[in-house]
Each structure stands twice: as structure tokens, then as C-alpha cells.
Amino acid sequence: MPPAASGDRRMRREGFHRPALAAMPAFTNPNNVSIVCGVPPKIHGVSGNFHFDQESGEDVMMVDATPMRAPTILSAFSAAGARAAAITAKDKLPKALGKDLFGIAVCAEKAAETTQEENGIRDVELPEDREGDIAVIAVKGVALGAREQDHDLLQLSGERLRSHGGMAEQVVPFITSIPITTIAEHMSRNFDLFSVLLNEAI
User: Fold this and answer.
1) What is the pLDDT of residue 170?
2) How far apart are CA 178 and CA 197, in angstroms?
3) Would you call 109 helix, strand, or coil by DSSP?
4) Residue 161's closest CA among 148, 147, 145, 144?
């Protein structure tokens, strides 16, 4: 049995486990920002991986904290003197998750380019092949790979690629490695994670 599977079973057995609802749409940015801010998108302001810029009339990919309207829990920890870090896979997230953070904010995607000034750490050694090369299309009517002639990614010029975001992915596991004795019924969202760990853990 792989170590990760063994650890997951132990956490479910000895810790706490229940389903939680992700922020909708179930995209990367709204959910990561929800978790790190402890509030839903209607409060923190990030509604998707892209946002519509009314001045330019263009969709803009979120690559920093510009659209965020709420402080992060990590920044509150660091402001209080605790050591905190935001470590992500993708380059678009460190500046958002590390908003106002006096600590480390780094991504695996650009690990070789980290600097003390920009990321709070340098000389990070992470594998270059940390992600696969499979993309799932989330545009109705577009299918990739059904036939051999459909395997060419060049046919997707102009289409956005993403791997998740639908209603089927709203229910996510809420797992902790430590027991939780009580948890309020209303605390069933992914962004309640820090509140549960700080207030309900034994």
C-alpha cells in the first residue's frame, strides 16, 4: 500500500472526516482563496480563475492579490508573530495566498526562480515534473481524445483548458489528522478548515 493511502486511512480512523462543500464554481482560485481567507467568494471577491476587466473588456487571469477584498488567515498569523508559509503548485497563487504575509510564499512551478526578497526563501529544490500533461476540456460540446485524430492539442486554439469546476466536484473531503469532538452544523464549507482546527480540535 502506498504511504499516502496508509496515511489517509490513519487520518480518517484517528482524526476527523466528513464531507464539506467547496465554493462554487469549484475552480482553483475561488476555493484556495476561500480556504486561506476563511470566507466565501462573495466576501473575498475572487469568483473564478479569470475575472472580467470592465475597463479593457477582457478576461484577466488572476495572478496576484489584486481582486482580493479580504485579509488572509496566514497574514493574521504572521502579523501576530507566528511563522507562516503559503506553498502552492501553480505560479498564479503565491501572490494571492501570500497577500500581506511576512513569511514564505512559493510555488513548485517556479521553484528554481525563488528569491529571498520575492518569496521569503531561496534555493527551493522541487521536481520539474510535478504535474501531468493531461488537460480536461470544460466547454460544452468540445471533447478531446475520443478518436486518434482528436489527440492533437493544437485543435483547441482559443479554448480554455481546466481540469475541474463543475457541480459534481462541489462535495470535497474535510479531513484532519487530529480528533474533533464537536463541530457546528453550519461549519460544512471548505473555508471553515482553519476555524475548525483552531477552535474545535482537542
Assistant:
1) 72
2) 9
3) coil
4) 144
C-alpha cell recorded at residue 48: 473564478
Closest C-alpha to 49, from 33, 71, 70, 72: 33
**Single pTM value for the model:** 0.65
Cβ atoms within 10 Å, residue 39 = 20
- DSSP letters, 69-103, are -S--HHHHHHHTT---EEEESSTTSHHHHTTT-SS
Q: Take residue 135 and report the three cell numbers written for it.
A: 488537460
DSSP reduced 3-state for 107:
strand
**Alpha carbon distance 194, 166 (integer Å):** 25
Backbone angles phi and psi of 86, in degrees to 5: -115, 115
pLDDT at 132: 43
90 burial class (0-12, 13-18, 19+ CB within 10 angstroms)? middle
Taking the alpha carbons at both ends of the chain, their separation in whole angstroms is 29
Cα distance between residue 125 and residue 95, in whole Å = 20
